[in-house]
Amino acid sequence: MIAKRAVGAGGSPEHPGVEGRDRSIDPVWDGRPSRIETWYATWTEPATGTGFWLHHEVVAPPRGEAISQGWAAVFPPGEAPVVERFGPEAAVHPVPEGTLFDSRAARASRGLLEGRTEGLSWRLEYADAGAALRPFPPWTFGREWFPGSQVASYPTARFSGTFGVGPRTFDLQDAPGAMSHIYAHGHAHGWTWLHADLGGGDALEIVAARPQRAALRWLPVLTFARLRVGGRDWPRDPARSVLGMRTRPGLPRWTTRGRAGDLELDVEVEVPDAASVTLAYHDPDGTPAWCTNSERASATVRAKGPFGERTWRLDGTAHAEVGTRTPPPGRVVY
């Protein structure tokens, strides 16, 4: 049986930037087995350049009770990253209205993140005036016949509040980042991910992956990319990026290049060894995967489209990762 736990009064507060948005951030898992649902937030503290990552997931195995778990990671410049996990514990389902993820250690709501581990603590509000940024076609999200999908529900979010790292406290005010949502049957066979806040409401989201299902393993790496410039998203049809974009995965560098409709894109990403962490992941059936992530990644983005030609350089403020089915050699795994 899936555990249920009540949330006290005031458990579903509304926050600025929530009203009028689509509901792409809301839970879609309905209790079926062999599913995983994830909400993750990443942001950069402007004063010091410290990167942050909060990951919340509900995992429903083929048989037995669903669990909730996650982790928090901090990436201070010039220092080793700090990572702490929370859970696993029996998943709360269904969650109250306005709540995304609920566990003893951490809770995510529309507009609010709060939690505590042994050495980390946080309470943060987040808001975004922009619409969701969808690298995958909208019809893929939550469809049981599709292996998985992702949406950056708050792609240019601003985070405010406090984050404690041992005796040190970060006081955050309008830190740029994103809040995103994944629903899938499991992790991809391999993947790359980039979130780039380009400033002025512009943003780029890339998810490139090879399906894990054996029947689809023959497919090349499929690239889903969406660029927002001046309030418009390119390509107009996100499915076109799969046909025209090619991603070459790798560590510490990977690239995405190609044309999709009116958009030409050339992206180079660096996931620095000294400012990254590798975590062990598991599919609902227990199959392992490994993800190397940095919230202090760098990226060069060159784009050409109806908006003209643009180049952005993010030095330590890009958020990126590479997922594999074998552990990266020489890495400490959390």
What count of helical segments does DSSP give? 1
Q: Give the terminus-to-terminus CA distance.
A: 29 Å
> Which ranges are low-confidence, i.e. pLDDT below 50, for 5 or more consecutive residues?
1-20
Number of strand segments: 20
Residue share in helix: under 10%
In percent terms, what proportion of residues is strand?
Answer: over 45%
The number of domains? 1
Radius of gyration of CA atoms, rounded to a whole number:
18 Å
Largest sheet: 10 strands, antiparallel
Biggest sheet: strand arrangement = 4-3-2-1-10-9-8-7-6-5
Name the structural class.
mainly beta
* Mean pLDDT across residues: 91
Strand and helix order:
EEEEEEEEEEEEEEHEEEEEE
| Gross geometry | globular
Structure explained in plain terms:
The chain is mainly β and 334 residues long. It has one domain. The chain is 1% helix and 55% strand. The protein is built from one helix and 20 strands. The protein has one helix spanning 240-244; strands spanning 35-44, 51-60, 67-75, 82-90, 99-102, 106-109, 112-116, 120-127, 148-165, 168-184, 190-199, 202-210, 222-229, 232-234, 245-248, 253-260, 263-270, 277-282, 288-305, 308-324. The model is unreliable at 1-20 (pLDDT under 50).
